[in-house]
Design a protein that fits this description.
By secondary structure, the protein is mostly beta strands. The protein has helices at 119-127, 139-142, and strands spanning 2-14, 21-28, 33-37, 41-43, 55-67, 75-83, 89-98, 104-115, 151-166. Keywords: Cell projection, Cilium biogenesis/degradation, Cytoplasm, Cytoskeleton.
């Protein structure tokens, strides 16, 4: 079987309106992909930058997949959250990016967005906090019904990923 190694880190996030951020992340693949080692999902620690705009997490990712085909190439999806001074967690944004298909080291910036909701929900969010969230997280990376959502652009999540491909040439894939 062909093998894919993803080794790297979620460096951090910038451009968000809040400080004190953390990230929940996961990898989504097609049914032909088998996880050999590593974690399919995880969560970073909270970073509250004092001086800079960038929240640094340096959260490691080390995943090893085997596959018989290219369909369902892995995607990394994430949810960025803000933790307030009372320990309450509030969604800041959703985002996803395709894992690069070429071997080597890649610096990736993943843009994020959040649902706007109705004007009543926006007004409530200003005074009380919270805000609309997706009922099903698969909307983050499938895009099937995402076009119906009214969204607002948020910040960026910065990634450094190294990709190692093995035995893809035996399955007719040149790289």
């Amino acid at each position: 079987m062909a093998e894919l190694h993803i080794i790297g880190q979620i460096v951090g996030a910038s451009g968000f309106p809040h400080k004190s951020l953390f990230c929940k992340w996961g990898l989504q693949t097609g049914c032909a992909w088998k996880l050999l080692s590593g974690l399919r999902e995880g969560q970073t620690q909270v970073d509250n930058p004092v001086i800079q705009d960038m929240a640094y997490w340096s959260h490691p990712i080390d995943v090893h997949y085997a596959t018989k085909g290219l369909q369902g190439w892995p995607k990394l999806y994430m949810q960025v959250w803000h933790q307030d001074s009372f320990g309450r967690n509030e969604l800041c944004g959703y985002g996803f990016c395709h894992i690069p298909s070429s071997p080597g080291t890649h610096d990736i910036q993943c843009v994020t967005w959040r649902p706007l909701g109705t004007w009543q929900e926006q007004l409530s969010q200003m005074f009380v906090g919270g805000g609309p969230q997706l009922k099903h997280s698969d909307l983050i990376y499938t895009g099937a019904d995402r076009y119906r959502l009214q969204t607002m652009a948020m910040g960026k999540v910065h990634l450094q990923l190294s990709i190692i491909l093995r035995n893809f040439d035996q399955y007719g894939v040149e790289y």
